[in-house]
TrEMBL record:
Organism encoding this protein: Saitoella complicata (strain BCRC 22490 / CBS 7301 / JCM 7358 / NBRC 10748 / NRRL Y-17804)
Protein name: Ubiquitin-activating enzyme E1 1
Superkingdom in the source lineage: Eukaryota
Domain Ubiquitin-activating enzyme E1 C-terminal intervals: 926-1052
UniProt keyword list: ATP-binding, Ligase, Nucleotide-binding, Ubl conjugation pathway
InterPro entries membership: E1_FCCH_sf, ThiF/MoeB/HesA, ThiF_NAD_FAD-bd, Ub-activating_enz_E1_C, Ub-E1_IAD_1, UBA_E1_C_sf, UBA_E1_SCCH, Ubi_acti_E1_SCCH
Pathway: Protein modification; protein ubiquitination
Length: 1059
């Protein structure tokens, strides 16, 4: 295999290339006329465009509108389109920039297919950029992709905001960077050589970062401010600030001079404790009385970057693996030596596993180290490491391209958006732990075969390539992570061998919002099954997968164990999760533990990601640790005392369910379920509420026209935003005090003001429109044609009843106080209510249409209603309102996502997959990863070992060990087996909830059960037949050891049918 000849990448003065041209556009990039279309209209600079939120919704929650607007005005050039270059280009296309230009005149070679997923066998001999242009352009209709033809000169870079160099000589990088650094153009170079990779960033002499972390600004409630400027947060709530943060204050009484919305008035803080911080001199501001909010202000930060030429002599490193903290300086020398070898050998890379070439690179490295600056020089070169770099230089691995391509693409987005902290300035990375230990790597075994896997064979050898091909792997999920994983697997050749295969399942269909990060799908695929489309896409990438990928459309869970049965799991070599919920992950984890299969787990959250390796008999399982519980709010806070917008959004979401789903479902149950009334009457507390709601929806308030739905919405507005608040203030007047003498309305309690309906207020009218349409949907009525003026006309005639607060209404004042108990209605009251309900037989075939919440349909009024309801409530309580975008994020519990993180994480997973294929049995060989591209931060840790337990001086694994009984023996034989073979006296034996045996059972019962086979015993006690597809039974035992002590022991698996 030959690495691309880099002499093609030299600069030229050939007059034929004095002007470069863009294919399909015009001749010179500096006057390119193609415009960035972000939504439906063309703009000159993208700055005033609207963003297609249905496509970019998940990414918007990572980057924000402002960052994406800056991206929409930026032109990016990528040089080199092998595996790494195409990975970067793919991620940038998905993210959305004004234009992407690609340059790579080299012809496609068969070995390029080792990692370049947009190349096909029939493309060999064609220009890489020319082939890839249309395939990249398919990813995002809003990002035009063009080919830069001709020679590459510094002057051609003027049209671009970012230039990315891959697969380029060091001399070319230096010449291009000299120009970009001098002209304020961001420059990024990246390369992979087998299991080695590096990244260099230069964003210019002055680059402004507007938000280094991407985290939401911290805010909190002030408890006190003393004369020294020490601020204490309310109720010992951790403030979450760090030294050097800036804050603004509002609603402070006594020190009103602190209150400001002007960010230039923000104060720098010094943290003195988790609940306190100092804000400096407060003299002359008066004495603090009460109240106050603090909000973090994110100040722009200016970074200074050195040029590549300067950085070679004086490098700054971002450590990618703290266990290898001393490796970047070694690789900094090694990569320069590799470039020198290539330049001295006519663009050729050192031969795989060739000792002569490796020694030459070591010699170059020694020369470079001897002549370099003191800042760069290493005390002692790691010759073994430098030789390994030489051995692998011709390698081209998809997982490495995915990892570095995700990180590089994120740096491109940072450079043009000013969002997130940059890589300063070098990152070196290697995964030498992924090299196989079960095969011998020689120069002969790593020679190219003229196949698409030559880039991988150069690193792992032919024998290991066969092992990869004969793997049987199960991918659970074909969404964002699943698409990237399948792409990597296709490049690896996973499952393509005679004995190999891939199983993939996903029950979901493709939606438009998926297209921004699930790159195997196109617009034409919307509505189709993910598993089928993804499998077809990767089979096109690697035709050797034809007939090797089995797709399923089923959820993996207890209800599909007849599909994913014993035979299915037993045939697998490993499982990879690509799921988005904990319950599904936990179930798959339990299956992997039971069948003792390796599991590769990963997840992303915006720029954050993690990977976990689960190896039988070595590591803990996914379920061994738990995520922190989802944040919740006290009921009394949501009902009566909100103090932040999250409270009002949660309230609006509950109101949505209480208005438009639950009542309609109750009506349908009443009409269709004969036992509904009986079961309702057995409930405690809310029988009257449910029955009254049914009566309202079927009789008293049943609308016949859309106009009546508008009237209903107006009356509900009055109840929720005026009457309820009047009642609250009647119970707790604004001047009321607590038993301790402090004002009731202080601290987290904000005194509300009842709303006065105004049809000219946009929030008021939006509430009416959304509520009326959703109420109409329940009854099959239409209001699409109504104009705002028609709404106002109906509203003008609505008679709103007068309201007077009632005495005796109990309201919970705080979460420590017992909630008011609902009075149980007497039987006569319920009887009267039941008699007033119409007979279900009078509504034969009639049903209401419950509204099922759907956040991604912008025409269905769901988010509109929650936004309006939340903002109306926020206005009543003096809380800053939220736009529709933020409300959708919180109410829809949207998980932020971006393609760069997904790409990086799947690359790390596949680097661990190599180890799984190799069958590693040392826990220190594996790595769990934690990344945050925003900071940026990459860290690895050794997996946690599985816990052990002992009985009778025997150690066993709490997770992975069990007692395997090979046949369907009797209960007597089972008890005797444990006594004789394990020295354990079984005291209790159970299967699920069925107690099969206990030592305290009467002799007669024991005599009846001892002769029974285990299957007969289980079926007799549970009164349920064992499914024919079930090959084994799980039994739990309690037992005493040889000393008579109760001991913890593993579970028992009884094989009841042959596998």
């Amino acid at each position: 295999m030959n690495r691309p000849t880099l002499e093609r990448y030299v600069l030229t003065e050939d007059p034929r290339y004095s002007r470069c041209c863009h294919r399909n556009t015009i001749e010179h990039p500096t006057i390119m006329t193609s415009k960035m279309q972000i939504d439906s209209g063309n703009t000159t600079d993208g700055q005033n465009s609207t963003i297609d939120e249905s496509l970019y919704s998940r990414q918007l929650y990572v980057l924000g509108h402002e960052a994406m607007k800056r991206m929409s005005a930026s032109n990016v050039l990528i040089i080199g389109l092998r595996g790494l270059g195409i990975e970067i280009a793919k991620n940038i296309c998905l993210a959305g920039v004004k234009s992407l230009t690609i340059w790579d005149p080299n012809p496609v070679k068969i070995e390029d297919l080792s990692s370049q997923f947009f190349l096909r066998g029939e493309d060999v001999g064609k220009g890489r950029a020319e082939v890839c242009q249309s395939r990249l352009a398919e990813l995002n209709q809003y990002t035009p992709v063009t080919v830069l033809e001709g020679a590459l000169n510094p002057e051609t870079l003027a049209a671009f905001q970012v230039v990315v160099c891959t697969e380029s000589t060091l001399s070319l990088q230096l010449e291009l960077n000299d120009y970009t650094h001098a002209n304020g153009i961001a420059f990024i170079s990246a390369a992979t050589y087998g299991l080695f990779g590096n990244l260099f960033c230069d964003f210019g002499a002055e680059w402004v970062c507007r938000d280094s972390t991407g985290e939401n600004p911290v805010s909190g409630i002030v408890a006190s401010i003393d004369e020294s400027g020490l601020v204490t947060a309310l109720d010992e709530t951790r403030h979450g600030l760090e030294d050097g943060d800036w804050v603004l204050f509002s609603e402070v009484e006594g020190m009103e001079g602190l209150n400001s919305t002007d960010e230039t008035q923000a104060r720098e803080i010094k943290v003195t404790g988790p609940y306190t911080f100092e804000i400096g001199d407060v003299s002359g501001l008066g004495e603090y009385k009460r109240g106050g909010l603090f909000t973090q202000v994110k100040k722009p930060k200016t970074y200074t970057f050195k040029s590549l030429r300067e950085s070679l002599a004086d490098p700054e490193y971002l450590i990618s693996d703290f266990a290898k903290w001393d490796r970047p300086p070694q690789l900094h020398i090694g990569f320069q030596a590799l470039h020198k070898f290539v330049e001295n050998h006519n663009g050729s890379f050192p031969r795989s596993r060739n000792e002569e070439d490796a020694l030459k690179i070591v010699e170059y490295a020694k020369d470079i180290n001897a002549s370099t600056s003191e800042a760069t020089k290493v005390e002692e070169l790691d010759e073994k490491l430098i030789k390994e770099l030489s051995y692998q230089a011709r390698g081209d691995l998809s997982p490495m391209c995915a990892f570095l391509g995700g990180m590089t693409a994120q740096e491109v987005l940072k450079a043009i958006s000013g969002k997130f902290g940059p890589v300063k300035q070098y990152l070196y990375f290697d995964s030498l732990e992924s090299l196989p230990t079960t095969v011998e790597l020689t120069e002969e075994s790593c020679q190219p075969l003229g196949s698409r896997y030559d880039g991988q064979i150069a690193v792992f050898g032919r024998e290991f390539q066969e092992k990869i091909g004969n793997q049987k792997q199960f991918l659970v999920g074909a969404g964002a992570i699943g698409c990237e994983m399948l792409k990597n697997w296709a490049m690896l050749g996973l499952g393509t061998g005679a004995n190999g295969g891939i199983q993939v399942t996903d029950m979901d269909s493709i939606e438009k919002s998926n297209l921004n990060r699930q790159f195997l799908f196109r617009s034409r695929d919307v509505g189709k099954l993910k598993s089928e489309c993804a499998s077809a896409a990767v089979t096109a990438m690697n035709p050797e997968l034809l007939g090797k990928v089995t797709t399923h459309r089923d959820r993996v869970g207890a209800d599909t164990e007849q599909i994913f049965d014993d035979n299915f799991w037993s045939a697998l070599d490993g499982v990879t999760n690509a799921l988005d919920n904990v319950d599904a992950r936990t179930y798959v984890d339990r299956r992997c533990v039971f069948y003792r299969k390796p599991l590769l787990e990963s997840g992303t959250l915006g720029t954050k990601g993690n990977t976990q390796v689960v190896i039988p008999h070595l590591t803990e399982s996914y379920s061994s640790s738990q995520d922190p519980p989802e944040k919740s709010f006290p009921i009394c806070t949501l009902r009566n005392f909100p103090n932040q917008i999250e409270h009002t959004i949660a309230w609006g979401r509950d109101l949505f369910e209480g208005y438009f789903r639950q009542p309609a479902e109750n009506v349908n149950l009443y009409l269709g379920s004969p036992n509904f009334v009986e079961s309702t009457l057995k409930q405690s507390g809310n029988q009257k509420e449910i029955l009254t709601s049914i009566k309202d929806f079927l009789v008293d308030a049943k609308p016949l026209t859309f106009e009546e739905c508008i009237v209903w919405a107006r009356l509900e507005f009055e109840k929720k935003f005026s009457n309820d608040i009047q009642q609250l203030l009647y119970n707790f007047p604004k001047d009321s005090v607590t038993s301790s003498g402090t004002p009731f309305w202080s601290g987290p309690k904000r005194a509300p003001t009842p709303a006065v309906f105004d049809p000219e207020n946009p929030d008021h009218l939006e509430y009416i429109i959304a509520a009326a349409n959703l109420h109409a949907f329940n009854y099959g009525l239409k209001g699409d044609e109504f104009t705002p003026e028609q709404y106002k006309k109906v509203l003008a005639d609505v008679m709103v009843p007068e309201f007077s607060p009632a005495s005796g209404v109990k309201i919970q004042a705080d979460e420590k106080e017992a909630a008011p108990t609902q009075t149980t209605p007497d039987e006569d009251e319920l009887k009267t209510l039941l008699e007033s309900l119409p007979m279900p037989s009078n509504f034969a075939g009639y049903r209401l249409s419950p509204v099922e919440f759907e956040k991604d349909d912008d025409t269905n009024h769901h988010i509109d209603f929650i936004t309006a309801a939340s903002n109306l409530r926020a206005a009543c309580y003096g809380i800053k309102t939220a736009d529709r975008h933020k409300t959708k994020f919180i109410a829809g519990k949207i998980i932020p996502a971006i393609a760069t993180t997904t790409s990086l994480v799947t690359g790390l997973v596949c680097l661990e997959l190599y180890k799984v294929v190799d069958g590693r049995q040392k826990i220190e060989d594996y790595k769990n990863a934690f990344v945050n591209l925003a900071l940026p931060f990459v860290a690895f840790s050794e997996p946690i070992a599985s816990s052990k337990m002992k009985y009778n001086n025997k150690e066993c694994d709490k997770i992975w060990d069990r007692f395997d009984i090979p046949s369907n023996i009797t209960l007597r034989e089972l008890v005797d087996y444990f006594k004789e073979k394990e020295g354990l006296d079984i005291t209790m034996l159970s299967s699920g909830v069925s107690l099969l045996y206990a030592s305290f059972f009467p002799a007669k019962k024991l005599a009846e059960r001892f002769p029974l086979k285990i299957t007969e015993l289980v079926e007799t006690i549970s009164k349920k037949p064992i499914p024919e597809t079930q090959k084994s039974l799980i039994l739990e035992i309690c037992a005493d050891d040889e000393t008579g002590e109760d001991v913890e022991v593993p579970y028992v698996r009884v094989q009841i049918r042959s596998a």
